[in-house]
Structures are given as structure tokens and as C-alpha cells.
Design a protein that fits this description.
The chain is of the alpha/beta class and about 425 residues long. It is about 45% helix and about 15% strand. The strands form three sheets. A six-stranded parallel beta sheet has the order 1-2-3-4-5-6. The chain has a three-stranded antiparallel beta sheet with strand order 9-10-11. Helix 1 packs parallel to helix 3, helix 3 runs parallel beside helix 4 and helix 11 packs antiparallel against helix 14.
């Protein structure tokens, strides 16, 4: 018992030193010791002590890297309750959890959390029953889906879900199904990983049985397996990159929801997009944010019906301004008419006097507001599209993008929907 207490104390001092150097912390909580029920009191004391230090010093992020942090529910709940009660408004806590192990009281506690206080990483790995059995995973898939949806609906906790390519009995087609299953859960981050075959691991022991070919150099990733060819792995690498750019960046949310409707499934969308990058040799060089949008716009034009071209242009323009107001506009952004420019100036002039739609901007003049917020006209019901994927038209309206205030989960600008009467100041 004394040894466990001493070890926790030494690790706390180490993390304090590391924070002073790098500004964030990874925290390991003796997972196996806790699972077996030993030394919980001592370990918990040090974690609360560490938590106090991190919160007091406003560390940007603390990562608890225990696998299945909530395997001991009482222990996990105590930590979550503590950080909720001592929230400093800044620190984010990251946990790897079992999504199917959450209790009802956990959800009641989550309702009280500040958006961005915690984030969860849930290792799905696969939805193929044969694969899950082979790697000894016993998660309740139906309950996992239900719990992920409940957290997503609250909108205050970032969820990171992952899949692993190269697992036993997972071929190209079953992996595509796993991809679509997880994508449908709408995680905030969707990571496609590749099996790493480490010395002493179960997969290394099965290397011959599973016909695994893997790199002899770190990170020891697979090249192929009995079920997945080298060509399949290369294809999946392209899809991985497209998911990282066009999904995980949060910068193309409405565009990807719209484009998914035009393909057989979500996987096919990203697969075709990867082919587009391959054909244009875009994987071979760095491209900036604006070019990413231009590439996606051109890709969409190939697949969007001609009658929908205007809608596609509106949707991708929305995504462009949802993140930032850049002076250098992409080609798909329509220039405003002189009448519209006068109306926007008149709107900002009124705001400088009333602050009706932009509280917190007191003291700014019209010229400054032009560079701090953006007003765009739309006829596609963007909010409906984001909510359930439905493409629906409505009477022209404006969206006011407020870049000073952002969503802490995806960094999107705050939005205010304005009717035409509100925009023009009509009583």
C-alpha cells in the first residue's frame, strides 16, 4: 500500500513538471490496480490532489489515458463529479470510456457540464461480430449506439469514435459496413486507425495464422492480412485522409451532409473524394484551406444535379463562412450587389446604436464590424439540413456569423438567424 501511494505521489510531481514545460497533461491512473479494487483510496486522493493543481493553474487539457476509464463506475463517477463541481471554465478533461457502461446517474451529471468540460474517446474498433469475438470485445452494440446518441443530443460533450483496419475476419466489405455504422452515429471525431503489430501482443502471436504482413519499423502498422489486401489498405489510407480533412476538421459539416445524399453510402462519398485527390495528385503536396474548399466544390459539381447547382453553392458558402471570414474569397462565393452592400452597412449602423443582435460589441463602429462578423443571404434551410439531412427551401433570410463567440466543441462561429424584416429593420 505504501508503494502505491509513493508511486502516485512521484507521478503527480512528474506531471506538474511536464505541465510547466508543455502546457497539457496525460494522466494514467493505475487502471489494473483500480479494476482489482486495491489502493483506491490512496490513488483517488492523489488524483483529486492533481485535479486541484490542474484546475487551479488552468491547464488547457488533461488526458486520462486509462483504457475503459469507467469500468469501475463508482470511481469514474467520483472523478467526473469532482471536476464538474470545480470547473474553472477553461480546462478540458479527456477520458477513454466504455460507451455501453454508462449509468443513468452519469447522464444526469453530464447534463450539468459546461460545453467542452469533458470529451470522451470510445474505441469501437469494429461492428463485425466475428471480428469482435476474435479480439475479445464484448460491448453491447445496441446500448452503445443509444448512449452515444444521448450524449450527442446534449451537445455539450465532444465524442471521439474510432475503427481499426486490419483486425481478424475484417475484410474490405465488412470494414465499409463498420465505417457506415459508426459514421451514422455522428461522432465529433471519427478516427480510422490501422492495426499495429507489437512484439508480445496477441496479434503478433497470430501473425502466421492471420497472414499478417506489417512494417518492422515503428509504428509497426499492417500492410495486409488474410482478409485485407495491400491495395485495400492503400485505399483505406486515402479514405482516412479525406475523413480527417473533410469530417474531423468541422469545416465542411453542411457540405458533407448534403453530398452524402448523392452517394450509395457515406463510405462511397469519401472513397470517391480520395480518388479525386489521387487523380489530381493532391496527396503529393500541401494545399491550403481555400483550395480544400475549391476542390470539394468542383467535386460536388460533378455529382450534383444541374437543378441543384445553386443549392450546392449556397451550402458550401455557408461552410466557408461558418469557420472564418477570410478576405480572399473562393470562386463559389457570389459577390454582393450594390443594394445588398448598402443594406448590410445600414444593418451595422443600426447595430452600433442598438446592439440588438450583437451584444458584447459595444464600442465598435461599422467599419470594425465588417471585419468581425459576416452577414450572408440564404434560401436553403441550412439548420434543417444540419439537423436531419433534409434539403428544403425557405423564404430568403440572413445568417449573422459572430466570430467573437464560438462553439467550444467545433469552433464554429455563433449564428443568429435573421428574417428579411429583421435584416432591413422593417417594423
Amino acid at each position: 500500500m505504501a508503494t502505491a501511494t509513493l508511486s502516485a505521489g512521484l507521478i503527480l510531481k512528474y506531471f506538474v513538471s511536464m505541465y510547466l514545460l508543455v502546457g497539457f497533461v496525460f494522466l494514467l491512473l493505475f487502471a489494473m490496480v483500480i479494476i482489482n479494487g486495491f489502493y483506491c483510496q490512496q490513488v483517488n486522493w492523489h488524483i483529486v490532489d492533481a485535479g486541484h493543481f490542474f484546475l487551479e493553474n488552468k491547464v488547457p487539457q488533461v488526458k486520462f489515458v486509462d483504457r475503459t476509464f469507467n469500468c469501475n463506475h463508482a470511481y469514474a463517477y467520483r472523478i467526473w463529479k469532482y471536476i464538474g463541481e470545480h470547473d474553472n471554465g477553461v480546462t478540458n478533461f479527456h477520458f477513454e470510456i466504455g460507451g455501453d457502461l454508462l449509468h443513468e446517474e452519469d447522464f444526469l451529471l453530464f447534463d450539468t457540464f459546461r460545453p467542452g468540460l469533458v470529451q470522451f474517446e470510445i474505441g469501437v474498433q469494429s461492428t463485425n461480430p466475428d471480428t469482435l469475438k476474435a479480439i475479445r470485445r464484448t460491448a453491447d452494440w445496441d446500448l452503445l449506439q443509444k448512449n452515444v446518441a444521448r450524449i450527442h443530443a446534449r451537445g455539450n460533450i465532444h465524442q471521439h469514435l474510432d475503427l481499426i483496419a486490419g483486425l481478424p475476419y475484417e475484410d474490405f466489405n465488412t470494414f465499409k459496413k463498420s465505417f457506415c455504422d459508426v459514421y451514422a452515429m455522428k461522432p465529433d471525431q471519427f478516427q480510422l486507425g490501422f492495426l499495429k503489430v507489437l512484439d508480445g501482443s496477441f496479434m503478433n502471436e497470430k501473425r502466421n495464422d492471420y497472414e499478417i504482413q506489417a512494417s518492422s519499423l515503428p509504428p509497426y502498422e499492417i500492410f495486409s492480412t488474410k482478409w485485407l489486401s495491400y491495395e485495400d489498405v492503400l485505399s483505406l489510407k486515402g479514405v482516412e485522409e479525406m475523413v480527417e480533412v473533410y469530417y474531423n476538421s468541422f469545416q465542411f459539416a453542411a457540405s458533407m451532409i448534403y453530398l452524402e445524399r448523392l452517394f450509395k453510402d457515406a463510405y462511397c462519398l469519401y472513397e470517391e473524394l480520395a480518388k479525386e485527390y489521387e487523380e489530381k495528385h493532391l496527396f503529393e503536396r500541401k494545399i491550403n484551406r481555400r483550395e480544400r474548399y475549391e476542390v470539394l466544390y468542383a467535386f460536388g459539381k460533378k455529382h450534383v444535379p444541374e437543378t441543384d447547382a445553386g443549392n450546392w453553392q449556397e451550402i458550401i458558402t455557408y461552410d466557408w463562412y461558418r469557420r472564418d471570414y477570410a478576405k480572399e474569397k473562393p470562386t463559389f462565393v457570389k459577390p454582393g450587389s450594390e443594394t445588398q452592400k448598402r443594406e448590410i452597412r445600414a444593418f451595422f449602423d443600426r447595430e452600433c446604436e442598438t446592439h440588438r443582435y450583437l451584444p458584447g460589441y459595444e464600442g465598435y463602429v461599422t467599419r470594425q464590424l465588417y471585419h468581425m462578423v459576416y452577414l450572408g443571404e440564404y434560401t436553403v434551410d441550412i439548420q434543417r439540413l444540419l439537423k436531419d439531412g433534409t434539403l428544403q427551401k425557405k423564404e430568403p433570410y440572413y445568417i449573422l456569423f459572430d466570430y467573437k463567440n464560438r462553439n467550444p466543441l467545433n469552433y464554429a462561429a455563433a449564428e443568429r438567424i435573421l428574417t428579411m424584416d429583421e435584416f432591413t429593420g422593417t417594423p
